[in-house]
Design a protein that fits this description.
Strand order of the largest sheet: 6-7-8-3-9-10
Structural class: alpha/beta
CATH topology of the largest domain: Rossmann fold
Distance between the termini: 15 Å
Strand content: 25-35%
Helix content: 25-40%
Radius of gyration: 22 Å
Largest sheet: 6 strands, mixed
Shape: globular
CATH architecture of the largest domain: 3-Layer(aba) Sandwich
Number of strands: 14
Order of helices and strands: EEEHEEHEHHHEHEHEEHEEEHEHH
Number of helices: 11
CATH superfamily of the largest domain: P-loop containing nucleotide triphosphate hydrolases
Number of domains: 2
Length: 312
């Protein structure tokens, strides 16, 4: 049984079909990525999962039962549009949000202080929220999301506005929560974060789920005949070569797709013969961003249908 099942969710706002018959499953104890470009329908899907929006059709199941108040009581939700009370003080804010979830007393206050220290915000505990930078407000919102020890954690673009140090700290805590057995849903348009952190994912575009499944299986399928090369030297001689299907220049590296698997070794030999200095040659390797561009970069129905059925 899955922790959560999203079944045929649809939502229309006027003429806009924000979510179009979306279905996916979230396994127990996983970091699940809901990925796609801005405006793809991720936030609307999450809001239907949270019962903030009522779907036009479809349902969300919590371990086989339609979600209700029990799910809300056991979820920590970090919305894309942050919602802190600007006039409240930092520690007061955290204790207030914990109390809403039924957690009060010295133990929860101690836990709040521990998180503030970890995020280097303890000296601001009596500061009004409005006096904090946007990045620090983001950290307070994240602490409020996890402070009551929710079983489910839903994070909508959690890394927005954070510097690299705090981004790394946030990532560490998310991984810790996974090790504790929490179910984490990470909604993001940042494919590199999703690729590094997620076990399973659903890719959504124009309101449709175009791909879902276990990340390792998705990458294994789409990586066939793909090679990533880190090199020194001019590869312009590859353009027009009959064994090359596609070339992507990433600046520090080059992605190449060959027409047949046997071409992989032929390409390596050609590069050596041409005197190219090869620092890294990763055969059958593809990034999640490349997969997303391949599927969502075109809007024709054949690509969308192909993506949905490829990996379950």
């Amino acid at each position: 049984m899955y922790a959560l099942e999203v079944k045929n969710l649809s939502k229309t706002f006027g003429a806009l079909k924000a979510v179009d018959n979306a279905s996916f499953t979230v396994p127990e104890g996983a970091i699940f990525g809901l990925i796609g470009r801005n405006g793809a329908g991720k936030t609307t899907t999450i809001r239907m999962m949270m019962n903030i929006y009522l779907p036009d059709s479809g349902e969300v199941l919590l371990r086989g039962v339609k979600v209700g108040q029990e799910f809300k009581n056991n979820v920590g939700y970090l919305p894309e549009e942050r919602g802190l009370y600007k006039k409240m003080k930092v520690l007061e804010t955290l204790l207030y949000f914990a109390e809403i979830k039924g957690k009060t007393g010295k133990a929860i206050e101690k836990k709040a202080v521990e998180y503030l220290k970890r995020f280097d915000l303890y000296d601001r505990k009596l500061t009004k929220v409005e006096e904090l930078s946007k990045g620090n407000q983001q950290k307070i919102q994240f602490i409020a999301t996890i402070l009551h020890d929710p079983e489910f954690i839903i994070l909508d673009e959690p890394f927005s506005g954070l510097d690299p140090i705090n981004t790394n700290l946030l990532r560490e805590i998310i991984i810790e929560k996974k090790r504790e057995g929490k179910v984490i849903i990470l909604s993001t348009h940042m494919m590199d974060f999703a690729e590094k952190m997620c076990d399973h994912l659903a890719m959504i575009d124009h309101g449709k789920v175009i791909l879902q499944g276990q990340l390792s299986e998705i990458k294994a399928k789409y990586s066939q005949r793909n090679i990533t090369i880190t090199h020194e030297g001019d590869l312009s001689f590859l353009y027009g070569n009959q064994m090359i299907e596609k070339i992507s220049d990433f600046g520090n590296a080059t992605g190449v797709r060959v027409r047949e698997e046997k071409n992989t070794q032929e390409l390596l030999k050609l590069l050596i013969d041409k005197g190219i200095t090869i620092k890294k040659f990763d055969a059958n390797d593809i990034s999640l961003q490349d997969i997303f561009i391949e599927l969502a970069g075109r809007d024709d129905d054949s690509v969308l249908n192909k993506g949905v059925s490829d990996v379950k």
